[in-house]
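Protocol step 6 of 9: fold each sequence in the batch and record its structure tokens directly after the sequence line. For illustration, a two-sequence batch is reproduced in full.

Sequence one:
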Amino acid sequence: MKSRVIHVEQQAHLPRGVEKSPASERERLRRRYRPARIRLLFIGESPPASGRFFYRQDSGLYRAIRDTFRMVDPSITNDTFLEIFQNSGCYLIDACAVPVDHLDARSRHAACLAREPALTRTIRQLEPAAIVTLLKSIRDNVRRAAAQSGWRGPILELPYPGRWASHRKIFLERLVPQLEQLFAGR
């Protein structure tokens, strides 16, 4: 049986009944919230293997970032957050295009390393004013990609705000001042 390769740009012309890939759906949703000028580029490791996704408003990372924004502006609601995130010049991308959180540490590291050239191109294209890494394990990947892109600017390195209270505390302590500065410049 012959396998048929369908490129992302061809998917709009798929035959009826053929589903588009979850990755292309995620990227279409992500691009919908891309600001014209990116002030803070948040970089995560990858979309979660669970199928949850920041821009679908159903991930733990979404809730952590939304709640941090609420600390600076309590009027933010679940219904308004993504628009405020975008209008503030914030954008979230992933170092890896496909989920890697279900892999062992060595495989995750290898996947992030393999995606550095793509991350380099993305940083060069987006030209953010600042970068925020959302997981300690990708900080070196992000640093290398930023350097390779020729980008110069501040990189705020945060721990993932997931299950550990100490990580959430550091996440808040480091991100809130950045958001206060961001909101002051609106």
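Sequence two, same batch, same settings:
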Amino acid sequence: MPTKTPGNSAQQGAGDNLSRRRLLVVATGVVGAIAASLPAARRAHSQEQPCAGHMNGNERIVRDFIAAWSRLDADELGGYFTDDAVYWNMPIQPVTGRDNIVKFIDGFLAGWTETNWEILNLMAAGDMVMVERVDRTRAGDKAVDLPVFGVFEMKDAKIKEWREYFDFATYMNAMK
């Protein structure tokens, strides 16, 4: 059996390749076991259009809601909420009721000229949908790319509660 010596590089290379292969096989098995143990909602791919059969109804509604923001229409957005919905824009107090949410949204849409929200990651399970995204918004010559994490609690195909987490100072500084 060949022995490894400092001058025996061909045999070292073969041994190194074998060690790398073993490591790859073990790592692949571990990753596969972890992935198999995760709920399907956590394994779902975060692309805008996932494969057919992997999207529940609430996920589709939230994706449609996010896409609707680009039309800057508060009344359309209000249609996604239950009558008694709660919108927590975390830096400020919650807004309760669909009519109040529409007024609140209309207040900040009034200054916007464009917005597009890019979904980075989305997880959906039952009545809960969580979305990590970047909201790219323009207000005239001012613009902001705002990292946001949103949590949607759904009821009867409507948003019952929506909680948004972001750095308010990032938004305000960009819109000065």
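Proceed to step 7 once all outputs are recorded. Observation for sequence two: The two ends are 74 Å apart (CA to CA).
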